[in-house]
Design goal:
There is one protein chain. The chain is an alpha/beta fold. The protein has a seven-stranded mixed sheet, with helices on both faces. The radius of gyration is 19 Å and the shape is elongated. The protein is about 45% helix and about 25% strand. It folds into two domains: about 5-155, Rossmann fold (3-Layer(aba) Sandwich), CATH 3.40.50; about 175-215. The chain contains nine helices and seven strands; from the N terminus they run H-E-H-E-H-E-E-H-E-H-E-E-H-H-H-H. It binds S-adenosylmethionine. S-adenosylmethionine binds next to strand 4 and helix 4.
Length: about 220
Amino acid sequence: MNRIDLIASLAKDSNTLLDVGCDHAYVLIKALLDYGCKMGIAADINIGPLNSALQNIKNKNLESRIKIVQSDGLKNIVDDFDTVIIAGMGGNLIKSIILDSIDKLNNKKLILEPNNDRPLVRECLINNGFKIIDEYAIYDMNKYYEVMVLQKGSCNYSDFEVKFGPILLKKRMPDFLKFYENKAKLLEKIIREVTSLDIKEEKEKELFEINKYILNS
Ligand SMILES: C[S@@+](CC[C@H](N)C(=O)[O-])C[C@H]1O[C@@H](n2cnc3c(N)ncnc32)[C@H](O)[C@@H]1O
């Protein structure tokens, strides 16, 4: 399963699926055609991606089921939806999109795939009353991705769970372990070669955490 297929599958059977930053709309199209989603909203801040989304939607005869909206985050979204995808963006941008429209996200299912700064995204949602209900780690075309699914609910995570992903730590998926095995090897190399004591100490701490909480647990 590739990244697009994984994300689309997590939206299975949504009534109205909103994709913020839809770009080509491949995820939305897949979710409607293969995973039983009924209606879609394809939103993007830029007109170029929306034109390409429109073309792809027309090619699959989905114009009557997918509405296209130019929007910065969820700011111009007026229609109701039950599931939202925000994928393929930096964690900081995803966090600001969420915080800008937190009132529109109550009781929604959130499917997020931040390219980086994942702890920032987890922390922001936990602080706003969401809990992580599932997490996935995959390599697609040699690039590592983590996808998280959230909904309203209380939870109590440790710092390590927020950092590495509470469900990923439990699931120990092969691609998650592979990512941290590679990261540990890279850190060992840096520790051997670096001359700055501060950097060495920081990398040793990071390596210790990876070994203790992921690779040897
Ligand atoms: C790398 S693409 C990811 C596309 C798709 N979500 C995926 O995961 O394959 C990022 C998209 O987010 C859009 N984008 C960036 N900032 C945005 C914002 N504030 N609101 C909505 N869309 C945004 C960009 O125009 C671009 O089409």
